[in-house]
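G., before I forget:
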Amino acid sequence: MCARLSGSVLVTGSNRGIGLELVRQLCESPCPPTHIFAACRDPDGPNAKVLRDLALKHPQLVTTLCLDTTNQGTIAEAARLVGDQLKDGSLNLLINNAAINIPGSLADTGEKEMMEVFLTNTVGPMLVTKEFLPHLRTAASRPGAQSEMSCRRAAVVNVSTLFSSIQRCHETFLRAPMYPYRVSKAALNMLTRCLSEDLRADGILVMALHPGWVQTDMGGPQAPLSTEDSVKGMLNVISSLSDQHVGALLDWEGKSIPW
Ligand SMILES: NC(=O)c1ccc[n+]([C@@H]2O[C@H](COP(=O)([O-])OP(=O)(O)OC[C@H]3O[C@@H](n4cnc5c(N)ncnc54)[C@H](OP(=O)(O)O)[C@@H]3O)[C@@H](O)[C@H]2O)c1
């Protein structure tokens, strides 16, 4: 089945892991978006070679962009470039995927670790969403836009995690304490809820999505899910989002996760 994402899409952290696979599957979909903005910290660097090759293979479809979620200047410049490149200035889907994890016990975790992870995983998606909001608003309100909310109209997907769930913390905490990561992603969930309430009136759908435990640099080789299967599921969920999913926290199979 083809995940329907007809408009323009921007993915942060798209040079490796889940972000790269999102761009790859969007490019190779039988019904691809009209345009893909593949954002990452260093699009010209050695860690973005696979992404650059993908962009070369699909020159009409993919634009690579420099965007560091901890650097307001790069976010603003990326939003300006996207505005210039889009014919009508409308961005339909923003996927806030970029994140870091500094694992460790309470003893290993101090102010530096907490702040660095919070800045990247929570403040970053807020700043990125804020900067791209004019493009999302244009998409949501353009003539002929559907009245129902969806990723084809305008949506923000914040990539969260099961580890953000306060209710289910006891299931995984002892094997993976990850204080900064868990706290930053629980805060990302609240950011998701705030934005979803704020932007509902504009017709912009905001939700959070857990990709599963995935074989990436972050997830490790022992993870049960391949990036292919995770992203296939994520794109199916994203393409079927509607009004009922405003502010939801779902997993890659579309199942709801308790806060
Ligand atoms: N893998 C899992 O099991 C798992 C489970 C639950 C949730 N997630 C979530 O899924 C998302 C993707 O994770 P992943 O597994 O693909 O991780 P990953 O393999 O470690 O990749 C992380 C991506 O984020 C980028 N990034 C980090 N800091 C950034 C910044 N300040 N600005 C821009 N980009 C930045 C990295 O770019 P550089 O190459 O420049 O560092 C890289 O592209 C994250 O939100 C993560 O929390 C993953």
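The radius of gyration is 17 Å. Helices lie at 17-28, 49-57, 72-85, 111-141, 169-172, 179-200, 227-239.

More on Monday.
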